[in-house]
Amino acid sequence: SQVIGLIGAMDEEIELLLSGMQTARKTVKAGITYTEGMLHGHRVVVCKSGVGKVNAAVTTQILIDRFGVNSVIFTGVAGAVNPELNIGDIVISSTCMQHDMDVTPLGFARGIIPYQDISEFAADSRLIQLAEMACRARGDRYLTGKVLSGDQFVASRETVTTLYTEMGGACTEMEGAAVAQACHMNGAPFVVLRSMSDKADGSAHVNFAEFTVEASHRSHQIVEYMLQHF
Ligand code: ADE
């Protein structure tokens, strides 16, 4: 039967999911705690990956191998890259790509993983639709677009401009593309949901501190709606 993996990078991003779960069982593997249980009538496995692409990739592979997860939803916050986005707005991944994959000296465009056919990983259309339905029903401002991931907290206007004009990003964060690539390698559908905590500019550190809890909760509420309508 269907098992849904729910990942966040930080405690703020998963604490509400955990508090709503029934018959929870905890297992630790590779230092990550996986909590199995029921949420809105669905079998789910909730976990905190920790920050960054390696944590996200390992966590996703374990969710698939060890816990038999057949779809993955990532919930969390991000820095806005598309200038139309404000703090609190939602980005639903159409695709995910690593902005720090840089083999440009060998002639590959930024983000391209050399010698493999796909570098931009497409989210599942049904999960995208479900997330869009949640945003519309709740009246959230949202955009379905490219999520750019890298092992960097982006806090400069120049970088944001590059990520937007050169890579067409909607937002930037530190896990989505790793989850996406691990899911692609295993044939598992995924979607990344991110609420904007900052604009990845010179004020990003201040805004992130101020808005992360609120933005995390917004992203969490969308996941709840999705599970209710899954
Ligand atoms: N997550 C939230 N804001 C971010 C930023 N500016 N850069 C990377 N990850 C983020």
Structural notes for this entry:
With 230 residues, the protein is α/β, with parallel strands linked by helices. It has one domain (3-228): Rossmann fold, CATH 3.40.50.1580. The chain is 36% helix and 31% strand. The protein has 6 helices and 10 strands; from the N terminus they run βαβββαβββαβαβαβα. It has helices at 11-19, 53-67, 125-138, 157-165, 176-186, 204-228, and strands at residues 3-8, 22-29, 32-39, 42-48, 71-80, 90-98, 121-122, 142-149, 169-173, 190-198. Strands 5-9-8-6-10 form a 5-stranded mixed β-barrel, surrounded by 5 helices. Helix 3 packs across helix 6. The longest helix has 25 residues, at 204-228. The radius of gyration is 16 Å and the shape is globular. The mean pLDDT is 96. Adenine is lined by residues 77-79, 153-155, 172-174, 197-198, 200, 204, 208.
Compact summary:
With 230 residues, this protein is of the alpha/beta class. The protein has six helices and ten strands. It has a single domain (3-228), classed as Nucleoside phosphorylase domain (Rossmann fold, 3-Layer(aba) Sandwich), CATH 3.40.50.1580.
Shape: globular
Indicate the CATH architecture. 3-Layer(aba) Sandwich
Bound molecules: adenine
CATH class equals: Alpha Beta
Strand order of the largest sheet: 5-9-8-6-10
Question: How many separate structural domains?
Answer: 1
- Give the SSE order as H and E letters: EHEEEHEEEHEHEHEH
Number of strands: 10
Beta content comes to 25-35%
Query: Structural class given helices, strands, pairing?
Result: alpha/beta
Low-confidence spans: none
CATH superfamily membership: Nucleoside phosphorylase domain
Cα-to-Cα separation, first versus last residue: 13 Å
EC number: 3.2.2.9
InterPro entries: MTA_SAH_Nsdase, Nucleoside_phosphorylase_d, Nucleoside_phosphorylase_sf
Protein name: adenosylhomocysteine nucleosidase
Pathway: Amino-acid biosynthesis; L-methionine biosynthesis via salvage pathway; S-methyl-5-thio-alpha-D-ribose 1-phosphate from S-methyl-5'-thioadenosine (hydrolase route): step 1/2
